[in-house]
Structure formats: structure tokens, C-alpha cells
Amino acid sequence: MNKPDELVFLPLGGCGEIGMNMGLYGYGGSWLMVDCGVTFGDDLTPGVDVMVPDPAFIVASIDKLVGIVVTHAHEDHLGGIPYLWRQFNCPVFATPFAAGLLRRKLPETGLGDTVPINEVKPGGNFSISPFDVSLINLAHSVPETQALAIKTSAGTILHVTDWKLDSEPLVGPATDEAALRKIGDDGVLALMCDSTNVFVEGRTGSEGPLRKSLIDVV
Ligand SMILES: [Zn+2]
């Protein structure tokens, strides 16, 4: 367990690999989980369709886990909940879109209505002591993708999930740069940020013009 005054980030999945994201923030003797995703089997894992992160670390201190926050509705961010929630038995926080998708998936593993899902509107806030969490709209390929400003009495961490700075996105509003700027002005201890092509230099074009050119081509 982390010391009470330490603010710790511990990824159990999703670092150094594609998919099955599972991050833990530890503070004041409590842990908050960010995302619980799957990854899919390939030629190297014959007979395996879906893989989940190994949650043994947090299961060993399960009374310290205060909740799971879902950043968005992609499988690599919420698809592990139906398989692993029985071991966590804690509240889940998600936007209405992600919550709706999750509710559809839970019966596949017999969970039905047993999982307490708290809906938080995009750009909203919630508190689960000792964490205060503010959601910030991000442009991504699924509705209601949210960055998380995770505030503690030690300071704020900005957890930016899959994201894009796109002035003309095809799904949902553009990234709320004003909200991000305000959080930056207020002070951020660390930015937790991940990108599949983080080492590729340059800038990806907007999806708006891409749509037009694809329609022309098709
Ligand atoms: Zn995604």
C-alpha cells in the first residue's frame, strides 16, 4: 500500500501494450481505478478471444478500492468490467453512453443489474473520497469520451485517455480546450497521456475533410 500522503499512479494494464487499459490512482489509503478494458487474441494466442488485465494487486487490497471510472465506451476501456467486476464489487462511474453500453454487456456474464453504475454527464463532476473527479470532453471515435481531472488534497492529476485535437470531429464536440487550459492554469502535478503512435512525428489531419474526400472516392 502507498503511504497516506503519497499520490501514486499504477497501471495494471495498457502500458507498453495495446488494449486492456487499467490504471489505479492511490491516495490517502484509497485506490481509484480508471478503465477496465480487454484486448483481443491474435495469431500468437490461439484459442483466446479476449484477454483482461491481471487485477491481483488491487484484489489483495480490495477494501481500499473506492470505484471504477470509465473514460469512454471502447472495449479496451470498459470491456473487462463484465469479466472482473465480481472481484471488485465497487461502484462504477460512466457517462450515459458508456453506462448504456455497459448495461447491455453485463448480462453476458450473468451480472444483470447487480453492478451499481453512476451516470455522470459529459463535462460533469463527482466525488468519491478522497478523490474529486472532473470530466472534460475529448474528441475521439466514440461519443462522450472524457479526460479526467483527478483532484486530491495533494494536487491534481490530468488523465487523458484516447483523444485528438480535431477542430472538425465526426463524433461529438471538439476537445474542450478551454476546460483543459483552465485546469492547467489552476495547476497540474502530472499529465497521464498515452497515444498509440506517440513516437510518430507530425500532426494527424481533421476527420471532417477526410469524410468529404472518402465520399468523393466512394
Ligand atoms: Zn478509444
Q: Quote the beta fraction.
A: 25-35%
Overall pLDDT score: 94
Q: What would you call the shape?
A: globular
- Helical content class: 10-25%
Q: List low-confidence stretches.
A: none
Structural class: alpha/beta
CATH class wording: Alpha Beta
Gross CATH architecture: 4-Layer Sandwich
- Give the beta-strand count: 13
- C-alpha termini separation: 56 Å
Order of strands across the main sheet = 1-2-3-6-7-8
Largest sheet: 6 strands, mixed
Radius of gyration: 18 Å
- Helix-strand pattern, N to C? EEEEEHEHHEHEEEEEHEH
> What small molecules accompany the polymer chains?
zinc ion
Q: Determine the number of helices (DSSP H or I, runs of at least 4 residues).
A: 6
Total domains = 1
Report the CATH superfamily.
Ribonuclease Z/Hydroxyacylglutathione hydrolase-like
According to CATH, the fold-level topology is: Metallo-beta-lactamase, Chain A
